[in-house]
Amino acid sequence: MQEDVIEKKIDHFHTDGNEILVLGIGNYLMGDEGVGVHFINRIDKTKFSENISFIDGGTGGFTLIPYIENHRKVIIVDATMDGKEEGTITLLKPRFSEDFPVSLSGHNFGLKDMVDILSMLDTMPEIYLYTITILKMEPMSMTLSPKVDEAIQKVTDQIVTQIANFKN
After folding, report:
1. Dihedral sign from CA coordinates of 158, 38, 127, 100
2. How confident is the model at residue 7 (pLDDT cuts 50, 70, 90)?
């Protein structure tokens, strides 16, 4: 019996033909926990080349799978409560759900499951996870603490450099 191998094709609807995705994750209504969404909504896209998709992923979880699996490289910005100093930026390159920090905020249960699905389907892109340390989640607040707010420009600069290094 001969097995047919179906080759995965890029879904251009979810990529606009771009190879790189920059994704901000978080709940905008939970104070610092929404830093990823604040980041993506403030980003100056003119600092980046044209082959990049930018998405406000909110708390999208599984609905983000087609966007992530159809890009070659994915940069995610999210909040974490990891005990470091508030506003600390950490870069991780997770390949499996166990590689994500335990202290990612609540919506990331879906993110970790999504990574497991992408691994099982062998559609996992290179993921670069930038976390910004927060101290607390504040329900029904759309403002960021000063240190977390300052981290947005710093992480933007790091990501501009990261993407420039992809080209080299």
Report:
1. positive
2. low
How many Å apart are CA 69 and CA 66, to the nearest integer?
5
- Measured CA to CA, the distance from residue 14 to residue 16 in angstroms comes to 6
Tokens of 165: 């290094």
Element at 4 (helix H, strand E): none
Instruction: Give one word for 162, left, alpha or beta, with left for phi > 0 and alpha for psi -120 to 50.
Output: alpha
Distance CA 84, CA 35 (A): 16
On the CB side of 44, how many CA atoms lie within 13 Å of its CA? 9
Read off φ and ψ for residue 77, nearest 5 degrees: -120, 130
pTM recorded for the entire structure: 0.88
- Per-residue pLDDT of 112-152, as tens digits, reads 777 788 888 888 899 999 999 999 999 999 999 999 999 99
pLDDT tens per residue across span 42-61: 999 888 888 899 999 998 88
Q: How many CA atoms lie within 13 A of 55 on its CB side?
A: 24
